[in-house]
Specification:
The protein is of the alpha+beta class. It is built from 10 helices and 36 strands. The chain folds into 3 domains: 281 residues, Sandwich (Immunoglobulin-like), CATH 2.60.40; 170 residues, C8orf32 fold, CATH 3.10.620; 205 residues, Jelly Rolls (Sandwich), CATH 2.60.120.1130. Helices cover 18% and strands 42% of the residues. The protein is globular, with a radius of gyration of 31 Å.
Length: 668
């Protein structure tokens, strides 16, 4: 029955899209009637703060007066503001590309706010003085504006055209965004002289149609004011149309690497140009070409190929006493990690020279790790930069060298035929390890002649945690115990960060407040706190006062799963765990002499569908002692949407079992 429902819903959705594709929405700017404000008959999430009534775009190639073709991108958007939280939709950001050869231009920009007053539509137009332009990186500026008189219940509308001579910069299109969309359409016309790779993603169904037509292109070549030539050519042109209707908001849920990976959208990457006079010119290139270009780039690899003799004197002191290259590498790594200050993430490119970074003893992540590569090379240790996309940035493309998808740089070293990945920007990370966010699929080691793929998969990470608790009652009403937690490596880095930020006393105070009732902690300690190469060990003694006739004891104490991570009834995109996990909890509880065991949970074991995990709960009452051993093991990190329900039910059972109590009754 459940499968039948999903199939019916899918067929219904596809049918709706098909009908919509045959009858494209005709939207005319400024044509707003009082009836347009009533969306009560439309289907969308009413908890949304705004709803996109229509978002329609097109990109076409047109002849220009420079002897070639330009791109013309047009966008027309209409949005209703549903409540005060939706006013942010009235602030529009239009990115424009530029370089030394020119810049993209915005033309025909207009924006209007419509409101109802006694059944009459009142309009307020955007004034030119409210349009601003700001540069936000070395190749992009942004035209920004906020529509006037925006409040709850209004409709906003804006349209603009971007004219671009950068024929490689075919605009992408997002069908899914911050607000639900009733209708979204994108039309692209591409002459056969250009070959684009289409990069689409998302699980929401998009109707795509294509029609090939012969198009004429008129080109003017203006040599001077009084001297120009005109010409035209005909090219087979592919007319692509994508349409989506009733597109829901994609909401952030737990265990999502990045919603950027799931949003329904289409992107384009210019692959080849086929000139009219024949031949084929590759544009996108490959990783061999890209690696060579990166190593020649002033803001990337060129700094590594320079003579960095200025490093010699400082490194001589750093590596003093090292017996071999591995020990040298560790000393250099610790020197950069512990002596230099990270300014945070920025990109994969340097913002200043390595010498300045060394002088200032600070830099962005990519700069500290590039300096680390230079220092290792200076000591004749083979090392190279590695570019990757951190988890929150979305996945990089596994095949094409799309550098704008990379935002993080670490170091790679090959020592005695063993590979090491290093990040000297994080003071909680040890030698040969990377922050968890770096494990996001394919990375690229940038050698002088090739960008070699390397899979930094979350599946390669495994966190094991073992907690032991001993509890006894030597005197009536006085319970004492000891807690020992051998934690996983990345949980240990989190603890190191917390202790560094707030102190060890605050850390244990937070643990004490997590207990309910009259609990006291003593003899607290964290072992190996400053050894970032290993995991930490947390220990403390505790005491409880329990004098009631009935004692309700939670055997997993603070280690119990209190809630199911997977609350939604369904999920339309994958579950992405940060790593594989293995959590073991053991309790030895001496039954108080003045109490009897009234209730005790039953042992149980369940296996996750597919055999990629299990939960066991083994408990035994000997008459004087209760022994509990529970374990949760997950051997996979990636679960498809159709596997979500099994995962949800698995953790629901864990939470239910962890909530079960041992009940003691005082003897009469």
């Amino acid at each position: 029955m459940k499968n039948h429902f999903y199939l019916t819903a899918l067929v219904s959705c596809l049918l709706s899209l098909s009908l919509c594709a045959q009858d494209k929405l005709k939207l005319k700017y400024g044509k707003i009637a009082a009836a347009d404000f009533d969306l009560s008959q439309r289907q969308f999430d009413t908890s949304a703060s705004a709803v996109v009534i229509a978002d329609i775009g097109s990109s076409i190639f047109e002849g220009n007066n420079k002897g070639g073709l330009s791109l013309s991108f047009k966008r027309h958007t209409r949005i209703k503001i549903l409540n005060k939280n939706g006013v942010d939709a009235a602030t529009v950001f239009i990115p424009l590309y530029f370089n030394s050869n020119g810049e993209e231009k915005v033309n025909e920009l207009k924006a209007t706010t419509y409101s109802l007053n006694n059944g009459k539509v009142i309009s307020a137009d955007l004034e030119k003085k409210s349009i601003f332009k700001d540069k936000y990186d070395k190749n992009h500026v942004a035209v920004k504006f906020t529509l006037p008189a925006v409040k709850e219940g209004v409709i906003i509308e804006y349209s603009y055209t971007i004219v671009s001579d950068f024929f490689f910069n075919l605009q992408p299109w997002r069908f899914q965004g911050e607000y639900p969309a009733l209708y979204s359409e994108y039309e692209v016309k591409i002459p056969e002289i250009y070959n684009f790779v289409f990069l689409s993603q998302g699980s929401f169904p998009i109707k795509h149609s294509v029609d090939n037509k012969q198009e004429s292109y008129y080109v003017v070549n203006s040599v001077s004011v009084n001297n120009s030539s005109r010409g035209s050519f005909t090219s087979n042109t592919a007319h692509h149309t994508w349409i989506a209707v009733n597109v829901p908001v994609l909401r952030e849920e737990r265990f999502t690497a990045s919603l950027k990976n799931q949003v329904a959208k289409i992107e384009f990457q210019l692959s080849q140009v086929r000139p009219l006079n024949g031949g084929v010119r590759d544009v996108m290139g490959n990783w061999e070409k890209t690696a060579v270009e990166l190593m020649k780039d002033d803001n990337f690899g060129l700094e590594l190929t320079k003579s960095n003799n200025w490093l010699d004197d400082g490194l001589r002191t750093v590596v003093n006493g090292a017996k071999d290259n591995l020990e040298k590498a560790k000393k250099i790594y610790e020197y950069v990690r512990d002596r230099y200050t990270s300014k945070g993430k920025y990109s994969i490119y340097l913002t200043t020279s390595l010498r300045n970074i060394d002088k200032n003893k600070s830099g962005y992540v990519q700069e500290l790790n590039m300096l680390l590569v230079a220092m290792l090379n200076q000591q004749d240790i083979e090392a190279y930069p590695v570019i990757l996309s951190a988890r929150g940035n979305g996945y990089p493309h596994e095949l094409y060298p799309l550098l704008n998808r990379y935002n993080y740089l670490v170091a790679y070293a090959l020592i005695d035929n063993k590979e090491y990945f290093l990040d000297a920007s994080d003071q909680t990370i040890g030698f040969g390890r990377l922050p968890m966010e770096c494990y996001n699929g394919q990375a690229r080691i940038i050698y002088p002649t090739v960008g070699k793929a390397y899979n930094l998969s979350p599946d390669s990470l495994s966190e094991k945690k073992v907690v032991s608790v001993f509890l006894r009652c030597d005197k009536p009403g006085e319970w004492t115990g000891h807690f020992t937690g051998n934690l996983g490596y990345y949980e240990s880095t989190h603890i190191r960060e917390r202790v560094k930020s707030a102190g060890e006393e605050a850390f244990f105070k937070n643990i004490q407040t997590s207990y309910t009732g009259d609990w006291n902690l003593a003899d607290t300690k964290i072992e190996r706190l400053k050894d970032s190469d290993t995991s930490v060990n947390v220990e403390y003694d505790f005491s409880i006062s329990q004098t009631e006739d009935m004692v309700y004891f939670s055997p997993l104490m603070t280690e119990a799963y209190r809630e199911n991570y997977f609350k939604s009834a369904e999920r339309h995109y994958p579950v992405e765990m940060p790593c594989k996990t293995d959590e073991i909890y053991m309790l030895i509880l001496d039954i108080p002499a003045d109490y009897t065991v009234e209730e005790i949970p039953k042992s149980a074991k369940v296996t996750l569908s597919g055999g990629d995990g299990f939960f066991e709960y083994m408990i035994d009452n000997t008459g004087t002692t209760i022994r509990l051993r529970t374990r949760i093991r997950l051997d996979r990190v990636y679960f498809l949407p159709e596997e979500y329900n099994d995962l949800r039910e698995f953790y629901s059972y864990v939470v239910k079992k962890h909530a079960e109590l041992i009940v003691f009754k005082k003897k009469k």
